[in-house]
Design goal:
Layout: H1 13-25, E1 37-41, E2 44-47, E3 52-55, H2 58-61, H3 70-82, H4 94-106, E4 113-118, H5 121-136, E5 140-144, H6 153-158, E6 176-179, H7 199-211, E7 218-223, H8 239-249, E8 253-257, E9 281-284, E10 295-300, H9 319-334, H10 337-358, E11 362-368, E12 371-379, E13 384-385, H11 387-399, E14 402-403, E15 405-407, E16 411-414, H12 422-440
Parallel strand pairs: 3-14, 5-6, 5-7, 7-8, 8-9
Antiparallel strand pairs: 1-2, 2-3, 4-10, 9-10, 11-12, 12-13, 12-16, 15-16
Helix pairs in contact: 3-9, 4-9, 7-8, 10-12, 11-12
Length: about 450
């Protein structure tokens, strides 16, 4: 079967029907493309009208092992038949304990770790906020402009990606100070790496901690090792270690949000490993569950609440989600997907770099492993973001059978499964190049 195959221009009649009813009954959220999925396998999605697409979105960086991986499906089926729910915070079952032990051993650093399970990324970050506040007895946090940590009121206060995410929701949790991220393509300080000497990291200690974020009141620094929704921004070498050093020197916790970067996405199991950084807390969700909802805060065991009831929930560590996560981690190991992400990342980067050289509308291409973005600009010299051209390319892409997501102000992100076949990756990139070429002319 040829993939992609667009028989009816999307959205086709069946898709339009679902979209119309969705609009009537579902709350307005963040829909980006009118693709109505019926089934999916590996890196191929079929819609309700029989079109097939190459998936470069993975359900927002979730199905790193591909859609419906047979091993994950088997594990889920088996677990559903045995035990679907038992409230893992109040009682016990082995699959939750085994997953916690596995994550505790997988997380970087020699210190003993513990795990709190949640059902989503935002909840994993809420848990991290509480662990940090509880253990330090301090209430403030440092976070970065452009950050995305979730949309519930604690994590929303850390989020600083788009104003629409925050508008009309104030007040959220007080005490969060945002500082500029290491966005070299658009350096907030108009400096150049490496002659900048990591000014954007040093300024935290030299200015912010001396004025608005006193370390005596600050519990920790929340950081995405690669900024996700903000635009897949990869900080320059040395930046994350410097942030870790500043946290340590000032007795602050370092909280790495690996919800999007974790589970092999960047070519290491955790993105912090690229820089040898060991955070005090790592938050995970998305790809951990292989398609089922699960979140986790993996933290230095010394930070544990140690008091019953300080933090808890009903569904966290659900047995079916845990079984799915265990099978996902098995598949990652068996198929060598961390290494494969690094290999395919290089292949993808080479093509996207070529496109950057060829088309003036591509202002930047960057990424780590299989987490990549092209940023579109209307004026390459002034780097004026061009969301209009980005939206046109996104539409052209799904009409030609490739599913991609927007990212940042004017980017398109590419997050295919870590086991996407080379030929599908190449075909997808050919189609993307066609779309960019049409937009450029
Ligand atoms: C880095 C990061 N943190 C947190 C979240 C929030 O996760 P969720 O949507 O599961 O609440 C996301 C979601 O995109 C994310 O990318």
């Amino acid at each position: 079967m040829k993939v992609p195959s667009i028989k009816v221009r999307p959205p086709g009649p069946k898709a339009r029907d679902v979209i119309e009813r969705d609009g009537r009954f579902l709350a307005t959220s963040t829909k980006t493309s009118p693709i109505v999925a019926k089934r999916a396998q590996g890196s191929v999605v079929e819609d309700v009208d029989g079109n097939t697409y190459i998936d470069f979105s993975c359900g927002i960086a979730v199905v790193n092992v591909g859609h419906n991986h047979p091993k994950v499906v088997d594990a889920v089926r088996k677990q559903v038949g045995e035990l679907t729910h038992f409230a893992g915070t109040d009682f016990y079952y082995d699959i939750q304990t085994r997953l916690a032990e596995r994550l505790a051993k997988l997380a970087p650093g020699k210190a003993a770790k513990k795990v709190f399970f949640a059902n989503s990324g935002t909840e994993a970050n809420e848990a991290a906020i509480k662990i940090a506040k509880w253990s330090t007895k301090r209430g403030m946090f440092l976070a970065f402009l452009g950050a995305f940590h979730g949309r519930t009121m604690g994590s929303l206060s850390l989020t600083a990606s788009k104003k629409v995410q925050k508008e009309r929701f104030f007040p959220s949790m007080p005490g969060v100070v945002h500082v500029p991220f290491a966005y070299c393509y658009r350096c907030p300080y108009q400096l150049k790496y490496p002659s900048c000497d990591l000014y954007c990291a040093n300024v935290i200690e030299d200015l912010y901690m001396k004025t608005v974020a006193p370390p005596a009141d600050t519990a920790g620094i929340f950081v995405e090792p690669v900024q996700g929704e903000g635009g897949y921004i990869v900080p320059p070498p040395g930046w994350l270690p410097r942030i870790a050093e500043i946290a340590k020197d000032n007795d602050l916790l370092l909280i790495a949000d690996e919800i999007q970067t974790g589970i092999g996405r960047t070519g290491k199991m955790f993105a912090v490993e690229h820089e040898g950084v060991v955070p005090d807390i790592i938050t995970l969700a998305k790809a951990l569950g292989g398609g089922l909802p699960i979140g986790a805060a993996v933290f230095d065991a010394k930070l544990d609440f140690g008091v019953q009831g300080a933090h808890s929930n009903t569904f966290g560590g659900n047995p079916v989600a845990c079984a799915s996560a265990m099978a996902t981690l098995d598949v990652m190991d068996e198929e060598g997907l961390v290494t494969n992400a690094a290999r395919l990342g290089k292949r993808m980067a080479a093509r996207l770099d070529e496109m950057k050289e060829k088309y003036a509308i591509v202002g930047d291409h960057r990424g780590l492993g299989l987490m990549r973005v092209t940023e579109f600009v209307s004026d390459p010299k002034r780097k004026t973001p061009d969301p209009r051209v980005r939206d046109a390319i996104l539409k052209d892409a799904y009409e030609h059978g490739v599913i991609v997501l927007p990212c940042g102000e004017s980017g398109i992100r590419y997050v295919p499964a870590l086991n996407i076949p080379d030929e599908l990756l190449d075909s997808g990139l050919d189609i993307i190049e066609g779309c960019i070429g049409r937009a450029a002319s």
